[in-house]
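U., I forgot to send this yesterday:
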Amino acid sequence: MATIPDIKKQTEAKMDQSIAAFRSNLAKIRTGRASPGLLETVQVEYYGSMVPISQVANVSVLDARTLSVQPWEKGMGAKIEKAIRESDLGLNPASMGDLIRVPMPPMSEERRREMTKVVRHEGEAAKVAVRNLRRDANDAVKKLVKDKQASEDEQKRAEADIQKVTDRHIGEIDRMIEAKEQEIMAV
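Result:
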């Protein structure tokens, strides 16, 4: 049977995972600035199976507005270029010998507003995940009280502690949303 400290520890760990997932989702949202995380979702056909670009090439930033993709094998350049072009990222890669340059097109005002909405939506989903974890933790604590393994005072203290952890994580999500919105609008 889980104890109150176990419940608190597990809840905080799960909330940390929610924040990490949100951070990774934010990295995939395009701003006008080049970021290797942008190509993480692009899949390339490699010996009959689909793999992420990072498994067949080195993706790095050439400058603020350009990514470079360096395939590890000679014949992969054309396939990688095609995969990037056909992805829904709106990018147009250009081959220069073995190196593929991926320029970041400037973002229109409308596209910036769209991306801001996407960031807010992702943030709201992350907050909902954190709140669901809070609810699950509080339910687990209530069950301990019901099963007479914890007192009502312990329940009140535990719920207050869980709320503090929740507030801290929600605040972290808000800060990440704010930073990403500024990044989108700044370029």
